[in-house]
Design a protein that fits this description.
six-stranded mixed beta sheet; alpha/beta; Rossmann fold; Cytidine Deaminase, domain 2
């Protein structure tokens, strides 16, 4: 046969029975996540759709009572290479990619190819596989989907005619619109964008995790973060740092914490509201027990511990009531009416807790502009992204104290109450902008010196703030987020009444600082771990 003869180039014609099966509209369904198939398949058949499917998806649909045509029957070509090749066939992709034009319709007819109008696909569980302990490179490679992303990209490209679905949560929307006559163009556009985000995030996950499996030191942070951001939800903020700047909040696909918080009431959130709320939220989950934190302009201005949340708030506000005005308040326990009554006595921008009772929400409702958020604690691990001119800097989040030491460096060891106070101060100083000094007692913080260029100035400010608000520092403790370069910081704290200090150590003058503590009778604990926050 002459290969140049147009008649010889006609595509393979499947059996007549397969052609006849596709008198209705066709939905191609091939999913790893099989949630909702037992509803989707039967409902599509009720609406007159023919189902085209592969492997395990076809079995699930058949078990749900559906009549399914296999992709191999449709293409006349079997799955090969252990399933690596099954949907990659012109008969499938031409059916998806044919534009809604007379010319393309005619070409499909010439080749006996039916159009495919709905593509329901999600991808092999690559991320779930690499998340398992001890996973090997060859296991991960087998979970790199090839046909799935190709189907999604093709369907998304041709969204002018084809609806593409990657998320079982969208099945209801699709079924409702199909029952009403067809999927609206606006919906098809949204679903197409979601499909592209899904495939981009999938590729980013592969780029993030394969380096480590191939022997690199660690996974690619930038690719990992890109994947998280691509499969995310965005919503507008009231404004950015200032009213003339726009702002967005992006919720990662698995995001909890403040990005996924439920807002019960109040004005829209701004960039600064969420920034301060995040700082307060992270702080309260680092506390050693039930407690409340107040944040103002990204720094703590009060922390209190108590089983009763109203009392914990009163203690926290008393640290620095002037700065607490207009702040963000976070609690790490469910709150009640007494807590709400205490909060509404002053002006606050945001309150965030894990739960509220009904009486508390009724009281907060009296302050219509107060933003009342309910959130779940987010995972301590993660990445921190900041912009620099021309790019970004990315680091692992400072997730806590696991593996830290607690070595007494002085002749005098801290007492039991001093140790409890040191632990609280140390947990709080991690959340204060460097250079940072925190002075406190076992159940409260008394003074905070934040963001100073010299550590001795931070110590003096912490003392001055405490004294300004009437706090007696006799017998108090202090935490420093990094080492004391000279004895002067410890001397200033001792003069105010501080009797124990916790700090990382690591200065070339550590011996001089410890000698000063011994001379003054101050106990000092070194952790060997720094907690800068810049």
């Amino acid at each position: 046969m002459n290969c140049d003869d147009p008649a010889s180039s006609t595509m393979y014609n499947p059996p007549v029975k397969v052609k006849e099966a596709f008198m209705a509209k066709i939905a191609l369904i091939s999913v790893s996540d099989k949630r909702g198939l037992d509803t989707l398949g039967p409902k599509l058949e009720e609406l007159g759709w023919q189902l085209l499917s592969t492997g395990g998806t076809a079995r699930t649909l058949t078990e749900a009572g559906c009549e399914v045509v296999g992709v191999g029957d449709h293409t006349g070509f079997p799955e090969i290479l252990d399933g690596r090749v099954k949907t990659l066939h012109p008969r499938v992709f031409a059916g998806i990619l044919a534009a809604p034009s007379d010319d393309h319709t005619a070409q499909l007819a010439d080749h006996g190819i039916p159009a495919i109008d709905l593509v329901v696909v999600n991808l092999y569980p690559f991320r779930e596989t690499v998340a398992r302990d001890g996973v090997k490179l060859d296991e991960a490679v087998e979970q790199i989907d090839i046909g799935g992303p190709s189907l999604l990209r093709a369907a998304a490209k041709n969204h002018a005619r084809v609806a593409v679905v990657v998320d079982p949560a969208d099945y209801g929307v699709i079924l409702d619109e199909l029952a009403g006559g067809g999927v609206a163009l606006e919906t098809r556009r949204k679903l197409a964008v979601k499909a592209y985000r899904h495939t981009a995030a999938y590729d980013a996950a592969i780029a993030a995790h394969l380096p480590a499996l191939m022997g690199a030191e660690r996974k690619s942070f930038s690719a990992s973060v890109a994947g998280d951001l691509l499969e995310s939800e965005e919503r507008s903020l009231r404004y950015g740092e200032n009213p003339h700047q726009w702002g967005l909040v992006v919720r990662r696909s698995d995001g909890q914490g403040l990005a996924g918080a439920q807002q019960h009431q109040g004005k829209g959130l701004s960039y600064n509201n969420l920034g301060d709320a995040t700082g307060a939220w992270r702080l309260v989950w680092d506390l050693p027990s039930a407690g409340v934190a107040v944040i103002k302009h990204a720094n703590p201005c009060g922390v209190g511990l108590a089983d009763d949340m109203a009392e914990a708030f009163r203690i926290a506000r008393a640290t620095d009531p002037t700065s607490a005005f207009g702040g963000v308040i976070a609690a790490n326990r469910r709150v009640d009416a007494a807590f709400a009554e205490a909060v509404v006595e002053q002006f606050a921008e945001v309150v965030v807790t894990p739960d509220y009772d009904a009486a508390a929400l009724e009281i907060f409702a009296k302050k219509k502009n107060l933003r009342v958020l309910q959130a779940e604690p987010a995972a301590a691990a993660g990445t921190v992204i900041r912009d620099v001119d021309g790019g970004f800097i990315i680091q692992e989040r400072d997730s806590g104290w696991e593996g830290e030491g607690r070595e007494v460096a002085t002749e005098r060891a801290p007492t039991g109450p001093e140790n409890a106070a040191l632990e609280l101060a140390w947990r709080v100083v991690k959340h204060v902008g460097s250079n940072a000094i925190v002075v406190g007692a076992a159940d409260r913080i008394l003074g905070i010196g934040a963001g100073q260029m010299s550590r001795v100035d931070a110590a003096k400010i912490a003392v001055a703030k405490a004294l300004e608000h009437g706090h007696d520092l006799t017998g108090s403790v202090a935490a420093s987020d990094a080492f004391f370069p000279f004895p002067d910081g410890v001397e200033a704290l001792h003069e105010a009444g501080v009797r124990a200090v916790i700090q990382p150590g690591g200065s070339i003058r550590d011996k001089d600082v410890v000698a000063a503590c011994n001379r003054l009778g101050v106990a000092m604990v070194m952790t060997a771990t720094r907690h800068f926050r810049h």
